[in-house]
Amino acid sequence: MGLQAWESYKDDLAERATRDTGTSRFRLVNLPLLHPLCGAALWWSTAMLLFDLTFTAFWVPINVAFCLDHYGRLDAECTRADLAGGLVYLVNIILGFQMGVTLTCGYRSRVVMNRRDAAWLYASTFSFWLDLLAVVPFVYLVVAVALGDSVARHQTVSIISLVRLARLFRVAAIIKKLYGRSTSGELKASWVADHFSVTPLYMALLVYLAMVLVNMYSCLLLLVARYEQEHGRTTWMSSIAWQDVAGLGGAERWYNAVYFCITVMTTTGYADFLPKSPLEQGLVSVMMLNGLVIFGTVVALTGSALKRSQAQAQRVHDQRKRLTLFRKWLQKWNVPERDCRDVVTFFSELSARRDEGRQESDIVFELPAFLRQQVAKFVVQDLLSQCAPLARLKPEVHELLASYCVPIELPTGHDLFRLGDDIEGSGGGLWLLEKGSVTALRNQVRTGAHVWPPPPPPPNKAMGEGRHSDAPVEKHLLGPTFCTRRPS
Fold first, then answer.
1. What's the half-sphere exposure (Cβ side, CA atoms, 13 Å) at 21?
2. Is the distance from CB of 163 to CB of 137 less than 8 angstroms?
3. Peptide bond into 36 cis (omega under 30)
4. Which DSSP string do the residues of 444-476 spell out, in sequence order?
5. β-pair partners for 409
6. Which of 38, 392, 402, 433 is a good FRET partner for 25, with 20 to 30 A between their CA atoms?
7. How far apart are CA 155 and CA 174, in angstroms?
């Protein structure tokens, strides 16, 4: 929906809200609509998606290929399965008019809960026509069952069920939307993007698409072979000299068709399966083109994944080589083993944090001043309330202190400040230790840690010769006075 149409519709809704529309004589029309994001609506949408991924994608082609002689007879299992699937499609299109519609315009979105507008919007979407096409075979099958033997049951009549495969376009649209949200920088959160990597997800979608196409083309090969045999022509089944494919059971014929389809789509055929008619040649040509696209993409994704893994392995190798050089240099000058281990640990943690991506401090430092204070206020309030000397302060003071805090994450052994450092340059007058430990040293000898209250520092100068962390530290600082969490 364009921006102009969006604004026009919003004004129209505001105008209609002031008028009393009354109620309809039809009880169904007066029922409240389901919100499209409520639990029931989401459950049904998920159930229909799974139904399309299984029944529509796999059972419909198989039913068309093997239910040629029994289509329309209630004693046939394929007919009963077709009727059950048709009922699901019918319920789906009815529920489509009982749910609200979500309109989007760029980053704007709103839910339409007006019944007339929701029905009109649903009927004007591509999804409605796909739902309607899926119901057409069900209507025909009900008529065929009701009229009995008076309806001619030619084997090609069941091909009408193939129109249900059009619902796979809806599945493709949903998958495209999920994939787009996973790769774009949208403001809305995406569960798929948060829990799955893009490349494995894309690979899984391609594998599923290949399975759907292989099954569909295999069933079409069986259908074409049956059609050609009815007219006395040779088929791809007759090209096999070492077995009689036409005389095999349904499962064996489907397996041979799948084998033929895979060898064609991957262009690795052994010349034992050959098309024998122009119709089969056309179908095989389409199969080869689809196979080139799908399996070519799979090869490209595999190569890209290998390239990234090689780059990551090379980066790890370079890091280990650098640490080895550091260790050799320290050993050359007879540095004690304990100090060598501390140096290597420091650089190892520093590199690991750099590879992990953005940390808490990176996020906060890039924010403007107002947003930085707002975020820090909510992040540090809990830490301030657990600090015994500050817990008795008023909430307004907590908010004021928290708004000036800045998160900093330091690796093991990092100096927080040293004698002579400017307190204001170090952050102010208060450090809140969230995780890790801090040690105060004088002449390289520990003098104490986590002491409260500390001795009053001289103006703008820090007390002590130095303080450093014994473990990776996460702290929110205002300056060189420490306060830790109370023991739980």
1. 13
2. yes
3. no
4. TEEEESS-SSPPPPPTTB-SSSEEEESS-EEEE
5. 474
6. 38
7. 34
Dihedral of the alpha carbons of 172, 45, 140, 74, in degrees to the nearest 10: 120
pLDDT in tens, the chain (488 residues): 566 676 676 667 666 655 555 554 445 555 678 888 888 888 998 899 899 889 988 988 888 888 777 777 777 788 888 889 989 999 999 998 888 888 777 667 777 888 888 888 888 888 898 888 888 888 888 887 777 655 545 454 567 777 878 887 777 776 666 555 555 544 455 566 666 676 777 778 888 888 999 999 999 999 888 888 888 888 888 888 788 888 888 889 999 999 989 888 887 766 677 888 888 889 999 998 988 888 888 888 788 777 777 777 777 778 888 888 888 888 888 888 888 887 887 777 767 666 655 566 666 667 777 777 777 777 777 777 777 777 788 878 877 887 777 777 776 667 777 666 665 555 456 777 777 777 777 776 765 544 444 444 444 333 333 344 444 444 444 444 444 444 43
Which pairs with CB-CB distance under 8 Å and at least 24 residues apart come from 364-369? 364/406, 364/407, 365/406
* Burial class of residue 275 in the structure, from the number of CB atoms within 10 Å of its CB (0-12 exposed, 13-18 middle, 19+ buried): buried
Q: How far is Cα 90 from Cα 84, in angstroms, rounded to an integer?
A: 10
Report whether 162 contacts 60 (CB < 8 A): yes
Q: What is the rounded CA–CA span in Å between residue 167 and residue 127?
A: 8
Task: Give the number of other Cβ atoms within 10 Å of residue 392's Cβ.
Answer: 7
Place of tokens 């893994």: 309
This prediction's pTM = 0.64
Residue type, 138: F
For residue 476, give the nearest of 397, 392, 396, 379 by alpha carbon: 379
Number of Cβ within a 10 Å radius of residue 384: 22
Give the amino acid at 293: V
Query: Which residues are paired to 408 by β-bridges?
Result: 475
Report which of 469, 435, 437 is spatially closest to residue 450, judged by C-alpha positions. Answer: 437
The single residue listed with the structure tokens 């104490």 is 448
Token reading at 193: 């993007």
> Helix, strand or coil for residue 20?
coil
Map residue 35 onto helix, strand or coil: coil
> 283-288: long-range contacts at Cβ-Cβ below 8 A with a sequence spacing of 24 or more?
283/217, 283/220, 283/221, 283/224, 287/213, 287/217, 287/261, 288/264
The vertex-304 CA angle with 302 and 309, nearest 5°, equals 95
Quote the tokens at residue 299.
Answer: 């090869």
Q: What is the pLDDT of residues 108-158, one digit of tens each?
A: 777 788 888 888 888 888 889 888 888 888 888 888 777 765 554 545 456
DSSP string across 195-221: HS-HHHHHHHHHHHHHHHHHHHHHHHH
